[in-house]
Design goal:
A: Cyclin A, domain 1, SH3 type barrels, 2 domains, 8 helices, 5 strands, B: mainly alpha, Nitrile Hydratase, Chain A, two-stranded parallel sheet, globular
Amino acid sequence: MNGVHDMGGMQDMGPVQEEKNEPVFHHPWEGRVFAMYRATGAWRKWNLDAARYARELIPPAEYLRMSYYEKWYAALADMLTARGLVTRAEIESGRPAHGSAKATPPLTPKQMLESVAKGASAKRDVSVAPRFQAGQRIRARNINPVGHTRLPRYARGKVGTIDRDYGVFVFPDTNALFLGENPQHLYAVRFSARELWGDQAKPQDTVYLSMWDDYLEPA
Amino acid sequence: MESTRRDFLTTAATAAGAAAAGNLAHAQAQDHDHVHQAVPSDMTLRVKSLESLLVEKGLVDSAALDALVDTYEHKVGPRNGAQVVARAWADPAYKERLLVDADKAIAELGYGGMQGEHMVVVENTPSVHNMVVCTLCSCYPWPVLGLPPVWYKSAPYRSRSVIDPRGVLREFGLELSEDVEVRVWDSTAEVRFLVLPERPAGTEALSEDALAALVTRNSMIGVAKVLPRREGGAA
């Protein structure tokens, strides 16, 4: 989706403002939202890509206005209801609906820490032939899907070079919509800054993106 | 999905506002001394309400949330990455392993896991300066840097790093020479990047721990260089 989240290359967002001695969470509720997102993810009703897509669906004016964890909260509430873990009425009241089923035991503290230590790899140990080799020139496809994609607008149609092959990874465009993992090769692709931005860029500067086979065509 | 959220945000705000008003009225009725106490913010109320719902439904254990918050507030952070950098500076064989297979080399120091499953370490040199961004969201190598600061997740950094990296670096006080190659790594997939900054001159005699103390979070994102002394003389 050509949404406001895809902001690489915009120029009107103001200066970068660094906060000195910034805390990890600015308010206790931010940590709770962060942790609830992880804990409810353990029910496997969605995946990482679907969670990103849920945040991208926040209407643009709200997306820009909301703080980071406000967006997480909105997306979490949306996923919980859309995937049937709770109802909107329950979120509004803060109480389970009368007679609603109680889930089987949630993630314990020990399981939570184990899941963080283990991680959740998106790499898949399946045999898929790569379509491109390191050193090969490619063109990023000019696609404009209305769903989720990790191909930013600023790279579409641009010519780059395969830098290296990272191996086979879950494809977010289908996974986010629960249409399958569609595992395929993921590459580091190098673009000249001039190819992306024209003569205002320094000739030697480069931008590297991680790109799947389905984003690329031979150049 | 979108219209659902619009409705949800509106109704949740109304419900939380009503709850806040209710709390205040309750406090006033009970004790006039408490009238001026801070009314909890809208988000505090909404999030408390959601947590209690999820706990009651058996979906979440509050102690597990405590454990996760504690992990990222107190245990996982940029000191982990600083240890990796210091080891690479002190031990050329380790540096070689780190640049070839970052996952294994970082695991040697005991770090890994969520949002650091597939790591790539990129080395800054006198002629190449690497910096890391996630233009589409907030991807960041948690096991070595912890959770990202607000500026990293902000629209200005996400939007401008790819088109004007030198201008962004200038805002961090870093003026790069004209002939340096700037490489911007946009984290568009499940690969996470750590910058191996240049070791500052004059640090030959320092121990690995003393070296680690020099390494800042920003230098490992690539928006700063490592100085021979920490600001404030902490080194």
